[in-house]
Amino acid sequence: MKALMFQGTGSSVGKSLLVAGLARALARRGLRVRPFKPQNMSNNAAVTAEGGEIGRAQALQARAAFVPPSVHMNPVLLKPQSEIGAQVVVQGRVHATARARDYQAMKPALLPFVLDSFARLRGEADIVLVEGAGSASEINLRRGDIANMGFARATGTPVVLVGDIDRGGVIAALVGTHTVLEPEDRALIRGFIVNRMRGDLSLFDEGMAQIAARTGWAPLGLVPFLDAARHLPAEDAQDLMDHLPRRPGARCRVAVPVLPRIANFDDLDPLAAEPSVDLILLRPGMPLPGDVDLVILPGSKATIADLAALRAEGWDVDIRAHHRRGGHVLGLCGGYQMLGTRLDDPGGVEGPPGHVPGLGLLAVETVLAGDKRLERVHGTTLADGLPFEGYEMHIGRSTGADTARPLLALDGPGRVEGAVSADGRVAGTYVHGLFAADAQRAAWLARIGAVAAPRDHEAGIERALDALAAHLERHVDIEGLLKVGGMNSPEPPSSSCQF
Questions:
Q1: Which of 252, 323, 333, 497 is the catalytic position?
Q2: End-to-end CA gap in the chain
Q3: Pairing relationship of beta strands 416-417 and 387-394 according to DSSP bridges
Q4: Is 497 a catalytic residue?
Q5: DSSP 8-state code for residue 182
Q6: What's the alpha-carbon Rg for the chain, to the nearest Å?
Q7: How far apart are CA 359 and CA 484, in angstroms?
Q8: DSSP string computed for 339-408
Q9: 231 a catalytic residue
Q10: Is residue 261 within 8 Å of residue 305, measured between CB atoms?
Q11: What pLDDT shows up at residue 494?
């Protein structure tokens, strides 16, 4: 088994998609590829076959490699619940809740879990593509590090450093990283990739040469900006907001309040791709437009805190007015909990024990207690019998009069889920992923007077992964990467996708 680690000069330089694209390219060459990220920080998570959770980016990378996602692909997942604290998920299960400073002290005890998961993947792969976290140059966090150079040193994994030219200063970022690293860490970096170049690639030939001369690292790729990448699920909510297409003239308008701890926001991706939908992401300070057809309250990692943020923005008043005007409201997971009459947190799952009133648009009450539910589910919507598949990922149970009108029938005898209001215009569910099913999405849009485009959402993701792989085949020295990783390259398949 060989391994190769991709670290970045900073966050959001494109490491996740580079690993996904390379995973698809190498898998198409016949290699058994496994993605791995020792530590991730994201509230956008996926449920694995083992019934655990990992970062959504690693689930996409697994899909790119044609393998099912596993908890061992992301053994430590941090899910922020406040500005200074996060839930710590270890090998798919909630391990602790820690403030940022306390987590720094916890990291050495987590390294054995990281190494165990890495060893498991090594046993089943030809190559493991490892993704770092944040910046390799965060020397203030180097002691006890398990995400970047600490992991690379512990395992002897060679590193390729990734910089983003689109944000500017990429020469300084790469050369500066070389400057601040300890000699032992610096020696593990064998090459670099410059990502998201726009325009004439030859204009940066001298830049690549200067970086190589000043660092001694091999130039392994200058990757042009790829528009097709926007069709792949984003890991960060900011990425979604930055690249969301606006369609002011669209037939249907859907508004989504962007709350501080928004989670599993890739639920929105299929709607964002619909030509008939203008998806409006409400940022702080923006009122809810008066002419929207549907308001979606998304998932949240801190439901009570996000409900307070929603009220602070005045969106609770706007949503009630929207409902009085005949508008529709859908709550997903944490958003479902917010729509009820009351939320109880008797054990202090999210903060100090207590309870708060909900928005009162559904006759349900939620108690945040018990084990976290992590399960992939299938079924049909009760209103029209259309199939769906998705997953549940939540703490808490919701009960009340409106659950007598469930939204979904899950596979299995007598299993129903969700709630619908008496007027039929407010609904809530714990199931993520409903809109990815084409028939489901078309039916939801039809209820609010819109027509879905005739497209296959899942096939579109596959096309985007193939396009990304072909793009990297052209602009990255993949043979050089594999040599850095200690292996020879098999020939690309003759049927390789061309973008």
A1: 333
A2: 30
A3: unpaired
A4: no
A5: -
A6: 23
A7: 56
A8: HSSEEEETT-SSSSSEEEE---SSS-EEE--SSPEEEEEEEEETTT--EEEEEEEES-EEESGGGGS-SE
A9: no
A10: yes
A11: 44
Q: In the chain, helix, strand, coil percent, each to 5? A: 35, 25, 35
Bridge partner list, 330: 296, 427
- Which residue bears the tokens 């098999």? 490
Task: Find all residues with CB under 8 Å of 462, minimum gap 6, and list them.
Answer: none
pLDDT digits 0-9 by tens, 68-111: 999 999 999 999 887 667 899 999 999 988 888 889 899 999 99
Contacts of residue 229, Cβ cutoff 8 Å, sequence gap at least 6: 17, 464, 468
Measure the CA dihedral 266/267/273/276, to 10°.
Answer: -150
Write out the two tokens for 15. Answer: 């490491």
Q: Could you say which residues of the chain have pLDDT below 70? A: 1, 83-84, 235-243, 487-499
pLDDT of residue 351: 81
What are the beta bridge partners of residue 380? Answer: 387, 409
Beta strands in 119-210 (DSSP E): 127-131, 159-164, 189-197
The reported pLDDT for the residue numbered 316 is 97
Structure tokens at 63: 């899909």
Distance set, CA 461 to CA 241, 449, 451, 457 (Å): 19, 26, 21, 7
Annotated catalytic residue within 322, 328, 394, 432:
432
C-beta of residue 449 within 8 angstroms of C-beta of residue 294? no
Do 186 and 39 form a contact (C-beta atoms < 8 A)? no
**Residue (of 140, 136, 195, 153) closest to 11 by Cα position:** 136
Residue 109 contacts by C-beta under 8 Å, 6 or more apart in sequence? none
Beta strands at 159-164 and 189-197: parallel, antiparallel or unpaired: parallel
Collapsed DSSP state (helix, strand, coil) of residue 6: strand
- Distance of alpha carbon 142 from alpha carbon 4, whole angstroms: 20
User: Residue 499's pLDDT is what?
Assistant: 23
